[in-house]
Specification:
Elements: H1 2-7, H2 12-32, H3 35-38, H4 41-52, H5 56-64, H6 69-79, H7 85-103, H8 107-139, H9 144-198
Helix pairs in contact: 2-8, 2-9, 4-5, 4-6, 4-9, 5-6, 6-7, 6-9, 7-9, 8-9
């Protein structure tokens, strides 16, 4: 494996760094972006039940004791109780934007890695081909070993760049879709609580 990396030339270092960054973000996002962590169902049902029974102070305490993104949104809504539905909606949208930004944390860097990795591979290919043509210029086409080394470097970096980029891009698209779906559910549940709080 080390020999394979060495044959890829100097650009294998940045490509390997991209793979480490991508893997770290993917693992971290898989742990963080789960429905059970973002909006625990039991918690949501309990808050909704308390709000329906107009036990507002108890619902507020419950939200404060929960550390999920959804609890921050509902806490702001509950603290705005009695101020009217429109104002409650406005305040939870502010909190919601911050929580969504936290959910999307790391996805931008993941997208960058997915874009940069194949370009690094392509640059490695260019370097490898330059090496081949330099060898041809100085030694002619008779030295097959020298030509093979340059071509090998070009192909290895291309393969390495694509090997990092493809799964990273798939993970990036998956997380964006996952976050979009979670945000939609969060909006629905927030609307339900807002309507209950806005009732006279």
């Amino acid at each position: 494996m080390i020999t394979f990396i060495m044959k890829g030339g100097v650009l294998m270092g940045p490509i390997l760094l991209c793979s480490v960054i991508a893997l770290a973000i993917i693992i971290e996002r898989f742990i963080k972006i789960r429905s059970s962590k973002i909006m625990p169902q039991d918690f949501l049902d309990e808050v909704q039940d308390l709000v329906q029974k107009r036990k507002i102070s108890e619902a507020e305490v419950l939200c404060k004791n929960n550390n999920s993104p959804m609890s921050s949104i509902l806490l702001k809504a509950i603290q705005s109780f009695g101020q009217g539905r429109d104002l409650i909606k406005e305040k939870i949208e502010e909190v919601g934007k911050r929580e969504i930004a936290q959910l999307e944390k790391g996805c931008g860097l993941l997208g960058t890695v997915a874009s940069v990795s194949p370009l690094l591979g392509l640059l490695g290919t260019v370097f490898g081909m330059i090496k081949v043509f330099n060898d041809i210029a100085f030694q002619g086409v008779g030295n097959a070993n020298s030509l093979a080394g340059g071509i090998s470097e070009a192909l290895i970096t291309t393969a390495a760049g694509l090997s990092v980029a493809i799964p990273t891009l798939v993970a990036y698209r998956y997380f964006l879709g996952r976050i979009e779906g979670l945000v939609h559910v969060m909006e629905e549940r927030s609307r339900e609580i807002t309507d209950l709080l806005g009732e006279k």
